[in-house]
Structure formats: structure tokens, C-alpha cells
Known about the structure:
two-stranded antiparallel sheet; two-stranded antiparallel ribbon; 8 helices
Amino acid sequence: IPLYILAPLLEREAIAPHLFSRFEDMLTAVIQHPAMLVYLDNTKSTGPNSRIGKNNKKRGINENLAREIFELHTLGVDGGYTINDIQELAKAISGWSISFPHDKKKAGFVYRSPQHEPGKRVIMGREYRDLGVQQGRLILADLARHPKTARFISKKIVTHFISDKP
């Protein structure tokens, strides 16, 4: 699906409904939107120790979405995270995918547990138990509440609306 088709849907379905709510709700809605999952190749991200990963060595973890979450959506490039944090987040959101025609009762975001990399994750010093889809959501909530996220997002807003050099 071309990005020019998905981008307006992302704005209408994930961003606009959350303009006046909590940032963590908007962040989760944006990350779980099919536009993000498809554009940043998370739909095929498969943990090597997942049920599917053990049987299909051609598939693996894709770090694109995890990297963008840190760099563009939360802490910023200089946010204090490491490559290991990116890799751990990528594992936590493995299995986050979209519905396909054979998913008759589902539309949009789908969690595919057979693709999820099992195990606890440690991100920026905090440990997250393996709670399936909730593991990634808890990490997103903590990143959304991080003080560096507040600074980074505030600067982006001020730069956009007030001055290029706030």
C-alpha cells in the first residue's frame, strides 16, 4: 500500500482522535496503526525464539519501527538510549502486525503471538516481563512519560508553531 494513501488515514484515525488526550494514548495509537506497521516493516518482524522464528530462519527482528519510536516519537536522537534498547524494543513489539484478508473478525492492528520474541526486556535500565502485546504497550507508556520525551516533543511543537530557533 503506498504511503500517500496510508498517511492521511494515520492522521485521521490515530492522531486526530488523540489531539486533546494523553500523549501515551496517541503514541500507542500511532505505533499500532497499519500505516506505521507497514511503512516501517514491523508486520513481518519475527523473534528468532518465537514459534514461527524457530521454524523459519529467513524471518527475523526488524528494528526500523523501534528506532523511529526512540528517535522521532519519544526521546529524540540524543535521548540517552543505546542500540541494545532499540533491539530490546524491537523484540517487545515483534508480532505487532496488521489484519489480512484471512483475518475475518479483525481489522487494523493485530497481535500475532507466534511471531513475538518471548522473554523479559530491559530498556533504559527498566525490566519488563513478557506479557505478550502488553509488554510493548507498557514500554511505550513509559517512554511517553519520560522527561526527555516531554522536552523533545515540546521543542518540536514550539519549533513548528513559534520559531525555528526556540
